[in-house]
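Consider the following assembly input.
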Amino acid sequence: MLRIRKLPIIIFALFIIVFPWVSRLIPVIQNYPDLMIFAGIYSLITIGLSLLMGYAGQISLGQAAFYGIGAYVSAILTATYGLNPWFCMIIGMIVAAIVAVLVGVPSLKLKGHYLAMATLAFGIIVFIIFNEEVEWTGGPDGMSGIPGLSMFGFAFDSVEKYYYLVWFFVFSVFVFTINVIQSRTGRALRAIHASEAASSAMGINVSRFKVVVFVYSAILASLAGSLYAYYLNFINPSTFDLFFSIKLLIMIALGGMHDIWGAIIGAFLITFLSFEWLHFFGEFEVIVYGVILLLVVIFLPQGMVGIPKIFKGLFNRKVSNG
Amino acid sequence: MPMEKITFANQLLQYLITGLTVGSTYAMVAIGFNIIYNVTEIINFAQGEFVMLGGLVMVFLHVAAGLPIVLAFPLTVIIVTLVGMLLDRLAIRPIRQPSVLTLIIATIAASIIIKGIAMFIWGKDPFDLPAFSGRNPIHFLGAVIQPQYFWIIGFLIVIVILLTLFFEKTIIGKAMSACADNPDAASLVGINVKRMILLSFALSAAIGAVAGITITPISLMEYDRGAMLAIKGFGAVVLGGLGSFPGAILGGLILGTIESFGAGLIHSGYKDAFALIVLLGALFLRPSGLLGSIEVSKFKRF
Amino acid sequence: MAFGGLMALINIHFNVKEGMVKAIIGPNGAGKTTLFNIITGTFPPTEGVVRFMGRPIQKLKAHEIAELGISRTFQTIELFGNMTVLENVMVGCHTRARSSFIASGLQLPHVKHKEEQIRAKAMEILKFVGLAEKFSESADSLPLGERKMLEIGRALATEPTLLCLDEPAAGLNETETEKASSLINAIKEKGITVLLVEHDMKVVMNISDEIMVLNYGEKIAEGLSEEIQNNPKVIEAYLGSSEEDRA
């Protein structure tokens, strides 16, 4: 059984809950909760992507498009039409789901490089639309005046409050996704990854499953996009470009594609690299990302989650030799 | 009334000519894709970076360092070829368990590294190259033709002829074709498959460089042009049929023409989107391409 | 059945009666696996009708055919290497249960209950094929003979009416072949109809009720074992292709 242990989840949850208190006391990391919000937002996207790529074995290089759809639908409906932000978030997810079906049904019949290119092309087309439809989206200058989130009068208007909101979503999605992985559905996905021919022969509707996972990943990316928009109260198309889709790929590869924890680990590492640790590289952090991705794919194909197994392997060899 | 009719037809002709020119560039990128694909079954996402480097290195050698075109051109090709070979050595060969996904990721990683280094060296501004034989436009049936267009189409023809001779007449070329058909059998017969792979990257890089050098006098070149060129080149590949050289040319020319008409007639801002929509259309409706066959595409390894 | 100009199968007509074991034999390249692929829906025939329990199925997709009650194993053993032995069989149970994506994510009680049932059923099948002790091992780690049994077990989990076995004895030694033969007999006793492609003549003669012989895509003989053994066309087909001498 693909047993995903509960204890690490509980420990991690405790860490997340306690962290803002800790960071208040240590000046150097006082801005970390803000970073953790981004880590959480990215985790929502990577969890969906991990299910799609790591478990179901598909590829998507266009997730930035769904991230952007969530952000722009939320932004446009709230800023221009004044609708309730929570409602708009849901609308965003519905729009993303519909687009995912329209794009996914023909695309997921493709394999390998063709699928990668199809999702890549899709992502760029959506990016171009964000830039060109100036009347709706404000074009390259972006959209401002996006409201924040509040519930029954309680406004999520501080970093800490938003932090808990985002991580509440992340944990809910994380647990939900783990449940899916350990269920009959998750088994079917892993079967599809291993052998589509055998899966069909066992009665699994391969196309439908692929589309369902793709839609799920789109919905999560859209949720992340809405949360992003409501946090910064400003969005512009450059956030949702091809490079962001590639960054997501780096997060998954670095964290570990075949393990759902890899999604969160990767999101964390890249967020901190991106906002904190690579700052002195300025714009040239791109080169570092490329190098990291290359090193991971050559030397650490299982990602960071694979490191304990590597140590176990070395240890076992030493024990049997020594 | 008759005046306007002639003008519109002239416009169409203009779009056609521009389209064929740009299409030739896409065809060159597509040929580069096919060469690597035929030998390795890898789609090199960094293909567009060779084009970008071709343009920018030429700018450095000819404009900055002042070398004459006759010298700078081959030198640029050599340098970019070396980059291509480095890509194989550093990004492809070290991978221990190559799979479709890891190879895609490796070439993507390589492309962003190359792009980053290009940004470091040349900055973000676009650069220009003097046209090889001047910029006096030739007027033909009301359309304006830049002399550089002939260079681009001319080089495409030269490349096609040289490649055909290479693959059909030379021993190395035939060895490469053998690798493409059946790498296991090829290595059993003593062909060094690894060296053939290296050679395929070298050739693709060289052709990409020529594409970049020849297109820069017309559309300038900047550090981040690589991605779109690669995707459009891939569109040409799919349109024409993966692995097919005549397909690459046909696909490139058709793609360039559609893009040119689309940009001219409808809305320039969406210019790039046209090529992408054609790519999606080809992938969704006829992934084996216009000149490929469905059975063959089903039996390819991925 | 034509593949882009190549006729893989020509004018094949045959019946499989319920509850029997029918073998399809013939030299390599005769079209046997192609026939299987058509029956199980891997690809549709360019011409012709496949009827299952009276119903034409040649236009259905593979997973729909599996749901109707036809299951199969593969010549190349398509096990799910990324899962355990038990999980492989549990995937076989997939089509006889129902759960939605959302219900799985929320771990609703009926989902948990179904999971228990699937697990139990899969263990039953593992006992039936003799792999119960290895349930938690990775499917890839099993030796060839056991992998074949696992693949049959997985196919059985779909509760098939017709089981198509593609070369179940290929590559097996004496003991393993014995096990495979008795397993197929046990399957027949359960009332499941078996259609198999096989090269091992001993196995074919031992367990089949009827045999059909293909050569170059055409049916050259059909009938009971003794008739086939003495059929001159069959003998010629086998002697003609020098590598098939396993009687």
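Chain B touches chain C through three residues (CB under 8 Å). Ask yourself how this observation constrains the way the partners meet.
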